[in-house]
Write a structure and sequence with these properties.
alpha+beta, Glucose Permease (Domain IIA), two-stranded antiparallel ribbon, 4 helices, rod-shaped, binds zinc ion
Length: about 300
Amino acid sequence: MRIIVVSKRHGNTRSINLGGWARAVLSVCLVGIPVGLAAVAYKFISDRDNELLDTHSREAWVQTLDQQEQNIDTARRETEKKLAALTLRVSELQARLVRLDALGERLTTMAKLDNGEFDFSSPPAVGGPEAQSAPNEVESPSLIDMLDTLAAQIDDRQQQLDTLEALLANRKLQNDVFLAGRPIRKGWMSSRYGRRTDPFTGGADWHQGVDFAAKEDSDIVAVASGVVTWADDRYQYGKMIEINHGNGFVTRYGHCKSLLVKPGDIVKKGQTIGLVGSTGRSTGPHVHFEVHKNGRVVDPASYIHRASR
Ligand SMILES: [Zn+2]
């Protein structure tokens, strides 16, 4: 390559012959400088773009943060609401447990159950601790499930206890109508049930009841609770009281001096229903006591002697 340099002042010309290396250096200068400038310009522009992007993202971040703060506020309010609801629920459950404890204690007393079977004096393990830790774990969704389970368990328990109470009440009632003991407070058995010599004729006789000799005007008592179905004169019985105890059981108390109840009266076990006398076919103050089971007269001995529960 040859480069010709012309001088303005002198009009002289000089030619310079460039070798391979010089050509290479010149080429680099001619091509490299614009490329470098372009690169610098590009970098400048892209820096500005980055700056613009940064501005945009900053605004976006501020918005996002605002949104998040709002979300946190909403969440907090909802959590507070949930907490209030849960606190209410826990206190409801606690109140129900207190009631159940009271019921359980009553049943334990009624049923005379061993403490090992039911211990209502201490809080039930199923509810206490979980319920108390509830407010601290309010955001755990399983807490609500747990409380629901607890409530279901309490429902279950309450149902069981209600059933048990009904059963026990029924049993208590059955104990009350349970025939047991003697129809007098003081006295002795003067004549048994069954075959005997007739005290009036001296002939063979079948005694349908048991006689209890007792002091005149002493108490005649009901051997079980029931409804008075007769309280009046009844032929050979004299003044007689009949009580229907249900379950097919009827008792009769004969030869009374006076009657203290009237038909339709509800009497309790052990209640005084009349006074000992000698009315009707009788040789002296005593109570003629009969037990009827399903319409047939039976020997009262087994009822008299069985333990009064
Ligand atoms: Zn008799």
